[in-house]
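Q: My labmate handed me this sequence with no annotations at all. I'd like to see what the chain might look like in three dimensions before we decide whether it's worth expressing. Could you predict it?
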Amino acid sequence: MEIYKSLWLKENEKKRKNRRPETYDLVLKLRDVVEEADLHGNLPTPKWLMLCAAMDVIEDTQQAIEAYIAAPANRNRRVGERYLRTYGVLQALFVQQDSARDLCNALSVPHLWNPSPVERVRELRIKSIGHPTVTRKSQRSRQSSHFIVQISLGNRGFELHSFDGDGNMTRQSVSIPKLAAEQVKHINETLKALLKHIT
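A: Here is what I predict for the chain of 199 residues:
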């Protein structure tokens, strides 16, 4: 177990030297609080490991999201690369939500994670890249199928066509920077609530 704490402390030090925007600062503050409270010695091993992994993954996925947003617009990118970037950023958003939820669970405050403000991000990920061929909220709900319109696929988003079981179509324009901004705001609010709760 000591090896995990040692690695975690080294990683903390590296991250402190490379200060970045608010999400990173909030996770670093949380790391400091975790260290000061000596949660390493007070949490069961599975919760401690989940806590460490969740803090790391929130930062890692934030880097992936920021890299997507910061990339210069380039309509000359090959279609395959545009799909890969889109699949990657939507998956990063999805994983970041799971990490925020698990962070709250590891600290025994599951009520501090409210998925409602970012549910749309999750639903769009499921429809467009998660389970596009058959999407159902439950076994009792009706099936729907979804398609990213290839010609619309750009650096900033895409158009999504959705069909219900009767073949009725709806269209929606998906702005990835907008989704990312909504999520970053909510992740930061969750981190602030966690800090307030444990300090």
